[in-house]
Design a protein that fits this description.
Growth Hormone, Chain: A, 544 residues, 0% strand, mainly alpha, single chain
Amino acid sequence: MSSSSPSRAENSGRASAHPSTSGRGAVAAPPAAKRWLVTVAVMSGTFLAVMDVSVVNVSLPHMMGHFGQTQSAITWVATSYGIAEILSITMAGWWSTLLGRKRLYLASFALFTLGSMLAGTAQTFSQMLLYRAVQGLAGGILTPVSQAILRETFPPRQQAMAMSFFGMGVVLAPALGPILGGWLTDNYGWPWIFYINVPVCVVGMLMVSAFVEDPPYLRRGIAHVDWVGIALLTAGLTGMQLVLERGQEHNWFASRSITIGTVLTLVLLLSLIVWELRVREPIVNVRVLRNIPLSIGAGIGFFFGIAFFGTTFSLPQLTQHLLHYPAYQAGLVLLPRMITLFFVMPIVGWLFNYVDPRLLIGAGILITYWSFQQLAHLSLNVGFWNLVPILLVMGVGVPCLFVPLSTVSLSTIPREDMTAATSLYTLARRVGGNIGYALVATLVERFSAAHRGHLIEHISPLNPTYLSHHGHLIDRLVHGGGDPVTAPHRALALINSEVNRQAAILAYNDLAWLFGMMFLSTLPFLFLLSRRQAAPATARASKA
């Protein structure tokens, strides 16, 4: 049975989502060897774009000294990238229609290369922020467009395998970023976290130019520019990113500026949705969210972004600040999860063809939930090898969720809407990640304060356990050569330090529990997917 048969397209009702299906402007899937060359080409861009979100984190202290900035100001190196990236992610579908995917991808690759080169040579702080924004504008295009290209390149039976390789880039890059960034900064200096992108970008551009092709239906252009949509989108997403980035610094809604900014952001984003539903050629095609699998996938992806990327941020923090790991070692804590992800992703891509994707997604949610519950019971005695089995299991759960979710979410999207759909799907996960970072910073501080308040209730002259411990510390200090007069105060300071550390580890435990519950709360959404929408590829092929 030919995959290009018109009857198959009519019978399935979902042919437009697949590259090998016939239809107006359809193209046959390229040969197998070429598919994998396309995969390497586009994933090089996605990997760099996602990695560059986190690669600067461990280098910020070095940049702070170089540019003479405060700790608060230097975080704009990350913020400028994030604001530009989230804007371009949302507009990727519109730009793809205007230029075509291949030309847009090549232009974004070139712009990302230029931004990387310039960022490494930045002499002033203003230059650095500008060049990081250039990187972000380009990087935001690369991720959703690469996903759309992969969907176009692989036939239905291999869609899940394609999404497994896409998933490797999306979930491995944030973990590798701090490790690579720390190593390059320590050995060669912070400019090299940007220069390292250049040769990969050049090779990637050459491969995209040689192997990626645009189908005819993409070359239709834009008759009307949605300037109102562009203005609402720019203002709304910039406001959202600024609120998330600066909320903790200004004590959130205790600050008048954050409160006003939040209200204005909500008004702008709601106005954007209303406007985009009315115009003929919207800058953001929100109509694609009427597709139930895509809406469910974006919703689950949003919570996935909060919990997964929140953990990517919180675990190195925990090990660095409480367990006193150096920065490079703190980044290596995520290595077990990264290794498991690398090997399990392709296996899940293969299983997708034989197992109901809802079962795979459900298993992924439950396995990841179990991992978070184990992270919710850590103590200050935890070591690296205590974390390894937990993160290895999490590395099994995440692919079981990510691969089938990415595949099913886009399985019923028409070809011409694919880039718009992947943009919104990516946006949901990215916004979730930004919220995850903000939650870590905010909730660790607030949970710590609450636990500290509970713990210090036990520091009382009426508590015999406290008196015994305090006396024991005084004896140790005096026998160690300390001044007997100051020993009681020093002992109290040690107890206070221990209370702070205990409160902090309890706060991280609470955070892990919360992230686990976020994963678990997405489980009921699977019942909204019909058996037909979630059918594995072999079942769909047999019915065709």
